[in-house]
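Standup notes
- DV: blocked on the single-chain target, sequence here:
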Amino acid sequence: MDAFTKLTGVVAPIDRINIDTDQIIPAVFLKSIARSGFEDALFASWRYKEDGSENPDFILNKPGYRNANVLVAGPNFGCGSSREHAPWALRDYGIKCIISTSFADIFYNNCFKNGVLPLVLPAEQVREIMDKAEADPGIELNVDLVSQRVWDESEEISISFEIDAARKDALVNGLDDIGLTLRMEKDIDAYETKHGL
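- DV (later): unblocked, structure below
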């Protein structure tokens, strides 16, 4: 898994609540478990018309937002089914950070396991970022996980955030569950040797 320390990226605002995993990646795209190649499936029912052409009204198809890697959205992002394909699709598209007031628990956990930072901020700060991104397409945010701070170039937005230390450590070091286990490889080897395993 790629490490996440600091990101400077374009912000795309999706001012909707309860964006569920079927909206993030529709069920028709769940046939593969390859863990990559899902970028075109992200928000497919919103991004494309029935004929397969782009929907010009969807935020990621608008000038200024096409290369977004920070998403700011309404509360309860990632609700619905527990499909891990949702963070895969976000990551494959290039979204490395999602900012909201709340996330569904399973989606939240899956993001950390796949190198995506789900950042929980108070409603007034999420609204501030949302409003600025809507008013100024192409605005960039800096997200520094090490210093736990978010800011824009003008510093009109400057926010410190809290995050669980263990989750932060895993993301900063690019460690998924297997990587975290392998950190203890010497202890595991010693235990196996001691017990003849």
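- Follow-up: The beta strands are 6-14, 70-73, 97-100, 117-120, 140-144, 149-152, 158-160.
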